[in-house]
Amino acid sequence: MIIKESLVEKTKKSILAYIFKENIARNEKIPSIEQLASLFSVGRSTVREAIKGLEQIQILEMVQGKGTYLSVDPSSLWNDISQLRSMTEMAELSGINLINIKIEKEDIKADDYLAEKLEVKIGAPLVVLKRVRGLTGEPIVYLEDVLPQELTEGFTKEDWEGSLFNALKKNGILVSYSRAKIIPYIPDDTFIKKVGLEKVVPILLLQHIHYNAKSRVIAFSSDYYHSEFFHFEILRKRI
Questions:
Q1: Per-residue model confidence (pLDDT) at position 4
Q2: 42 in Cβ contact with 7 (< 8 Å)
Q3: In the chain, which residues have pLDDT < 50?
Q4: Which DSSP letter does residue 187 get?
Q5: What is the CATH number assigned to the segment(s) 7-72?
Q6: To which H or E segment does residue 40 belong?
Q7: Of 35, 118, 123, 174, which has the most beta carbons under 10 Å away?
Q8: How far apart are CA 16 and CA 135, in angstroms?
Q9: The CATH number, out of the four listed (3.40.1410.10, 3.40.50.300, 3.10.290.10, 3.30.559.10), of the domain defined by the range 77-226
Q10: According to the model, what pLDDT value does residue 17 have?
Q11: Which pLDDT does position 74 carry in this prediction?
């Protein structure tokens, strides 16, 4: 059975995409209901319901007689790539409540590729954590983390659902630094279906290897960011 998404839900996603695209800041006023209705070719009542929905999750705030204002700071998601933060930490800084749309955990054995990345023996037991996180049901980031199974023995259900860095820290494992690279990625049909995207969109793939203070590899991560919601800044200095 195919369930069609309501027009209100589509409008909520359109408003969110507009906020990110236009770099609207916290406490800044967004366009009026009439302007949004015209922009998205929907009725004013649809926009009102969409705004109410975004109010309920504390992204927008309607002020009587003045208009609608942004309650969160999405610029915190446009991260300086030199700062090492988990997706959960980035969301908390912005005031945005990201939800886990899908979580999968799988036990595997290291193949040649992963053994090299994680600096373990071929066949070593690993855990793969796959998470789709989003806003109001809209997937905005797909996270895939691979780490040695022995590092996750004390993990609880809540640990798998929250910040991986915090879960590791709770178990006495501190991530000190990472080596990362950004790769442009065009999703294929398999990826679109797996993540739940509605269409082909440019993806920013951030691949990184995390280390502790003694340069032991802790995890190999591949983060796929929806480019309508994220961009990264790099501070370059002339030497």
A1: 44
A2: yes
A3: 1-4, 80
A4: -
A5: 1.10.10.10
A6: helix 33-40
A7: 118
A8: 8
A9: 3.40.1410.10
A10: 79
A11: 67
